[in-house]
Amino acid sequence: MISKDNLFAISLFPYLGFLWFISRVPQMPRLALYGFYGTLLFVGITIPAGIYAKITYGKSLANLDWLHGGAEVFLTLANILIVLGFHQAVKQLREKD
């Protein structure tokens, strides 16, 4: 059986492929694209934060609210960029009509 850590690591490859493809689509809203890249930044921050939580406190990241919340801020910001980017794109399309 595959461990959750290995599954997480393997899942990065399809996401990198997704980023590669959407970054080449001219219709892709730039702000939303930055949000999708921000999700990758969230992953990049969460991994060291999880290691720090385990080494320093002997706990998983999910059990340290202040550290977990700090990492989750990056996911929240990424999601906001995605929503604003697509909202802006829809608004521009409606204004064309």
From TrEMBL:
Name the domain of life this protein comes from. Bacteria
Q: Which UniProt keywords apply?
A: Membrane, Transmembrane, Transmembrane helix
Q: Where is the signal peptide?
A: none
Q: Which InterPro entries match?
A: DUF3593 (IPR021995)
Give the residue spans that cross the bilayer.
6-22, 34-53, 73-90
Name assigned to this protein? DUF3593 domain-containing protein
PANTHER family named among the record's database cross-references: 1-ACYL-SN-GLYCEROL-3-PHOSPHATE ACYLTRANSFERASE (PTHR35473)
Q: Enumerate the Pfam families for this protein.
A: DUF3593 (PF12159)
